[in-house]
């Protein structure tokens, strides 16, 4: 049972959201605002701290609270510095320490995909499954592992980071410095870049999908390759992890073909002739990350 209020922050590349939950799970305060994108690390730091203060201001005077923050990266277990963040202004920065100094309170910081997976396991589409792999497919591509309602981080805090498995060493360059990572193949930015390389003009992911459905040959080729890459990437992961369920999140999880053609492709690439792993759409939408961040410091709600 939750015995304190919980403040959660979902720090994303484009938006930051804060949530305050009462001990009984009631939402007491919620706010979303644009993440500072061009003003650097200090602006992001003070934006997050300001949102936490607003949420804390909605608490009763005698009510204590925990604070959890989901970030698009992870903390190095030795230095405490942010690494592997696609919001690059965070890389190499002591985010947890700096926010704790600003607030004068302890803060828990975890990867945003871990927060997403935790939320879907405790209150969403992954509830009732033992081992769940959570996938975020949006601008980037991340993943998290939850076992019996608890996030598995691993000794290097990279458990579930399938977005940077190298699938093609001769493929497109990834921001991480390698080539052909999962993220370059099945993220929105990766598919958009693939279309640009093939056709010499820019379309966003929504346009590519819509035009593919309408019969545009170039978009159809790019979209078919995306679905095949999805099957190959996830099929290989299922062969290694054999999870009880996979929950898809992020903006690309709304693409209907992932649950038909995409799952057929997963079955083809998985090392099993009768792959039965449920591959399901999230049920908490883009709220999952902020709920997961709030629940980081709490017992099972």
Question: Widest sheet: strand order?
Answer: 3-2-1-4-7
Give the termini distance in whole angstroms: 6 Å
Tell me the number of helical segments per DSSP (H or I, 4 or more residues long): 9
| Name of the CATH superfamily of the largest domain | ATPase, nucleotide binding domain
Number of strands: 12
Description:
The protein has about 300 residues and is of the alpha/beta class. It contains nine helices and twelve strands. The strands form three sheets. It has a five-stranded mixed beta sheet with strand order 3-2-1-4-7, with helices on both faces. A five-stranded mixed beta sheet has the order 10-9-8-11-12. A two-stranded antiparallel sheet has the order 5-6. Strand 9 (about 140-145) and strand 10 (about 150) form a beta hairpin. It is globular, with a radius of gyration of 19 Å.
Topology:
Elements: E1 5-11, E2 15-21, E3 27-34, H1 41-57, E4 65-71, E5 74-75, E6 82-83, H2 95-103, E7 108-111, H3 112-123, E8 131-137, E9 141-147, E10 150-152, H4 182-186, H5 188-199, H6 205-213, H7 217-241, E11 245-249, H8 261-269, E12 279-281, H9 288-295
Helix pairs in contact: 1-2, 3-9, 5-7, 6-7, 7-8
Features:
alpha/beta, 2 domains, Nucleotidyltransferase, domain 5
Can I get a quick summary?
The chain is α/β, with parallel strands linked by helices. It has nine helices and twelve strands. The chain has helices at 41-57, 95-103, 112-123, 182-186, 188-199, 205-213, 217-241, 261-269, 288-295, and strands at residues 5-11, 15-21, 27-34, 65-71, 74-75, 82-83, 108-111, 131-137, 141-147, 150-152, 245-249, 279-281.
